[in-house]
Design goal:
This protein is α+β, with helices and mostly antiparallel strands and 332 residues long. Helix content is 58%, strand content 10%.
Length: 332
């Protein structure tokens, strides 16, 4: 068979990863804003003796580092989107960046916790008015960052419909792509983009830490509760640790090809098994990028149909963009 004659059966695995996403632009804006505020909070915290404010600044710095990693991941994914060395495209770069960001956060948690405990037993003088002012400004900045990223920020996955530059005739072949979800479908995928989800949760946690810092500083200033400042630093460290562990788990599942949602697999299985005495004997569903999945399905039936028939049974909102179906005739 001539090489050119099989061209129509071949396809890329880009899945829209070569496009600039709105999340990338949002991330860049928030990095700049956060970087400036981080420097201000850390300097004021050091020179005015506020551990809660210093902890808030360190946490803000940690999420800026995480956002920088996310930004680099976006650029890297676009640059190498067409590289054949990536079997299913560069989508997992997203989760690798989130996992790295969570590891860095864990280090910051240890620093925050240690410094807070030290300040608990060795309190330092706090210049309350300056510290409170900077903490309030930090809270405002966090609020603005949350608006920039928005609820769409941690669910926005692809931005546009994916590339699908080939036309398969699946009647004679068993390899196929599933439905390519559009923008609306992908934005409904909860927590699809780990980078943007990390960004949003980082900012949210920063906002909560700023609130704790303000409460601690007011309590120390008006009631003499100097212990409240380092205590809030410890509480802030626990908040960040909890978030970090959650992100490590979610990103790690993607990196280790953890099975996709039971609900999605059960739904697809139910649809296929309702067709002509078919049984699904093997089903693998795993994430290959933000909100997109690959599926490998084996079915057994007394009345085998072409693989493409079973592909059409995959729901359009499942997020499956690449599917391979194996049809085994049952002779018993």
């Amino acid at each position: 068979m001539h090489t050119n004659s099989i061209a129509k059966w071949q396809h890329n695995h880009v899945f829209g990863q070569d496009r600039v996403r709105s999340g990338e632009r949002r991330t860049l804006v928030v990095v700049v804003i956060t970087g400036l505020m981080m420097i201000a909070e850390i300097l004021v915290g050091i020179f005015n003796g506020s551990m809660a404010l210093l902890a808030d600044g360190i946490h803000m710095g940690s999420h800026m580092v995480g956002l920088l990693i996310a930004l680099i991941a976006y650029v890297y994914a676009r640059k190498y989107a067409n590289d054949d060395r990536f079997s299913f495209g560069t989508g997992k770069v997203n989760s690798l960046a989130a996992f790295t960001s969570a590891l860095l956060l864990a280090v910051f948690v240890l620093v925050m916790g240690y410094e807070s405990v030290v300040r608990m037993f060795n309190p330092v003088e706090i210049h309350y008015n300056i510290a409170i002012t900077v903490a309030i400004i930090g809270l405002v900045v966090n609020g603005a960052s949350m608006l920039i990223l928005g609820e769409k920020g941690h669910t926005h996955a692809q931005g546009d419909e994916h590339d699908h530059d080939h036309d398969h005739d699946h009647a004679a072949h068993e390899h196929d792509h599933g439905h390519e979800p559009n923008h609306a479908e992908l934005t409904n995928k909860k927590g699809a983009d780990h980078n943007l989800k990390a960004a949003y949760l980082h900012v949210f946690a920063d906002a909560m830490t700023s609130v704790l810092a303000i409460i601690a500083l007011l309590a120390a200033k008006y009631f003499g509760w100097n212990w409240a400042d380092p205590l809030m630093g410890i509480i802030g460290a626990f908040m960040v640790a909890r978030w970090s562990i959650g992100l490590l788990g979610n990103a790690g599942k993607v990196l280790l090809d953890h099975q996709g949602s039971d609900d999605v697999r059960q739904k697809i299985t139910g649809i296929m098994e309702s067709y002509r005495d078919t049984k699904v004997c093997d089903f693998h569903l795993w994430s290959i990028g933000p909100g997109i999945y690959s599926a490998n399905i084996s079915v057994v039936t007394k009345y085998p149909d072409v693989p493409d028939k079973y592909k059409t049974m995959i729901p359009s909102n499942s997020g499956v963009v690449h599917a391979t179906v194996e049809v085994q005739p049952c002779l018993d």
